[in-house]
Description:
By secondary structure, this protein is mostly helical. It folds into 2 domains: 3-79, no CATH class; 98-174. It contains 8 helices and no strands. α3 (32-41) packs parallel to α5, α6 packs parallel to α7 (106-142) and α7 (106-142) packs antiparallel against α8. The protein starts with a helix and ends with a helix.
Amino acid sequence: MCPHRALSLLLVSALLAGCASMSESECQVADWGRVGLNDGARGEPERRLADYTEDCGKTGVVPNALAYRQGWDAGIKRFCTAANGWQQGLQGRADKAQVCATQPGAEAFTRYLNAGLQVHQTQERMRQNTQEIQRLHKKLESAASDDEKRRIRRSLQDIDQDQFRLRMYLGQQQMLAP
C-alpha cells in the first residue's frame, strides 16, 4: 500500500473516531475537502476547522479553508435530513439540532430529531422501570412481613401499568418515523 494512502486511511480513521486534533503527518497529507465532507456528514460544527487550524498551525501546515468549507457544505446536507434527525433523536443526540439550524431541511431535521428524542426518553423510562422491577423482585424475596410484600406487589403493579402505557405510547411515537 502506498505510504500516502496509508496515512490518508489513518487520517480518516482518526476523524471517524472523533479525534479533534491531527498529528503533524496527518496535517501534511490531509485532503481538506474530504475532511470537511466527513465532518459535515457526521454533523460536526463548521468551527471544527479552527481546531485543525490551531493544531496544524503548530506544525507549520495551514489547512485549505475553502476546500474544507466546500466539503463541509456538501457533508452537512447529507447530515441534515429528516431520516438522520430521527436517528440522532433515537440516540439522544439533542446537541446536533444547532448544526442544522441554518441548513436547508432544518425544519424536517428538527421535527424528526424531536420525535426521535421523545422515543429515546420513553425507552429510557421503560429501562428505568425494568430496573426498578428487578430491584423490587429482589426486595420481595427478602420481605419479612405480609404487609411489606403487599406494598411491594402494589408497587410492581403500578410499574407494570406504567410499562403498558409506555409501550402503547412508544408504538404511537414510532409511527412518526420518516
